[in-house]
Amino acid sequence: xxxxxxxxxxxxxxxxxxxxxxxxxxxxxxxxxxxxxxxxxxxxxxxxxxxxxxxxxxxxxxxxxxxxxxxxxxxxxxxxxxxxxxxxxxxxxxxxxxxxxxxxxxxxxxxxxxxxxxxxxxxxxxxxxxxxxxxxxxxxxxxxxxxxxxxxxxxxxxxxxxxxxxxxxxxxxxxxxxxxxxxxxxxxxxxxxxxxxxxxxxxxxxxxxxxxxxxxxxxxxxxxxxxxxxxxxxxxxxxxxx
Length: 242
Prior knowledge:
Blueprint lengths: L12 E15 L3 E8 L3 E7 L19 E6 L4 E9 L9 H16 L7 H16 L3 H15 L21 E5 L3 E4 L7 E2 H9 L5 H18 L6 H9 L1
Parallel strand pairs: 3-5
Antiparallel strand pairs: 1-2, 1-4, 2-3, 4-5, 6-7, 6-8
């Protein structure tokens, strides 16, 4: 049965927004609590009443990495999910790619404010899943998504010019990245990276092992700063599987 059309002018009802499931957990005896990343409304929390009992008929499609169309109603932090259907075939992630997918989901849950529409980030997320499924370049997919997420929440990185002088970044020079300002010429800092790595991050293209290693180290430090010390469970999965 198709979902009921919303009443005209009713802001508490949303009909058929594109979405991905970020997280689900059991709620009471028959329901589910869901975190969704939607195209038009950003990250939202909903309750799927009776979904575990099959009464709603859409519990089977509520899986990670499956494109969805969802409808919900209600105000406040937790709305009621009224309808969900698959909007395409979900990507199949295996082994390391699966952990990478969980990492993207966890970053969205931890860093993206609720009810903040980010349609460009939604497209980046979808493209990132496709890249992970293809097994083409996991590191580039992760770095590209991290950069896009930071831009979406207002913490985009300065990667082409020095923070203090405004001079263009030199590929061969070492820099220390100050999170509150940008890159400055490095002294003996242990976390220094080469200018070529900053430029690679800007272009989202990593052609050497050095730029890939330095970019990963730098982005891990920046992400950790914005997480305020909170650990990521998806990283524990990486460690336990290695």
